[in-house]
Each structure stands twice: as structure tokens, then as C-alpha cells.
Specification:
alpha+beta; 2 helices; deaminase activity; RidA family protein; RidA; YjgF/YER057c/UK114; 126 residues; 27% strand; single chain; 60s Ribosomal Protein L30, Chain: A
């Protein structure tokens, strides 16, 4: 059985998908971009601020599923420019304890939704 996870504290989907799906004890989030959940505005001031908003959106979804970043076992990061990797990684890393950091891949892509610079999804287990 699957349970749809939704929260007003993360951006509403911009297509035919849900913020996250919980199957048993496993949560699968949709990719999050830097949309402010209250205003709907894109937060693209700089890559650090953009990544911070993405991680806050993920955090809100995790909370809606009664989880936090310590439950994350896998992350996928898609970026438009590999030159931003270190800045993205610094913000991303601040949300995890080094001992419990998840497995991860980071991939440079040609283009992301709404022409953002970073999109991140996670898988978490209770």
C-alpha cells in the first residue's frame, strides 16, 4: 500500500506527481527545486540560497512523513553546472551528520524544470 505525503510547507507539484509517496517504511520524494512554498516564487539569487530552499522543501516533506534527514538513505542531485558542485555540496552537507550521510549521486544535466540550477530528491526509511 502507498500513502501520498503532502504538506503546504513545500511547493505544490507543478505536474502530475505528488510531493512524496510512502510505501511501508520507505519514503520516496519527488525532485525538489527552489520554489518558496508560501509565495510560489523561484529562489534563484545565488546557488547557495537556491540549494538552501531546496533542502528546506525536502525537510518539510520529511517532517510531513514524521521523518528527518537522519532517515535519508539515498539522495539524487541534478545540477546544471558542475562548477557549482562545491557550493551545493556545502549547503547540502550542512543538513547531514557525517556519520549518517546517505548514499548519493550528483549528475550534471542539460536543463532542469523552470530553468533552475539544482534539483534534489531523496529516499528515506523509518
Amino acid at each position: 500500500m502507498k500513502t501520498i505525503i503532502t504538506t503546504p510547507n513545500a511547493p505544490a507539484p507543478i505536474g502530475p506527481y505528488n510531493q512524496a509517496i510512502l510505501v511501508g517504511n520507505t519514503l520516496y520524494t519527488s525532485g525538489q527545486i527552489a520554489i518558496h512554498p508560501k509565495t510560489g516564487d523561484l529562489i534563484l539569487e545565488d546557488i547557495k540560497t537556491e540549494t538552501q530552499q531546496v533542502m528546506q522543501n525536502i525537510e518539510a516533506i520529511l517532517k510531513a512523513a514524521h521523518m528527518d534527514f537522519s532517515h535519508v538513505i539515498k539522495s539524487s542531485i541534478f545540477i546544471s553546472n558542475m562548477d557549482d558542485f562545491q557550493k551545493i555540496n556545502a549547503v547540502y552537507g550542512s543538513f547531514f551528520d557525517d556519520e549518517t550521510a546517505p548514499a548519493r549521486e550528483t549528475v550534471q544535466v542539460a536543463r532542469l524544470p523552470k530553468d533552475v540550477n539544482v534539483e534534489i530528491s531523496v529516499i528515506a526509511i523509518k
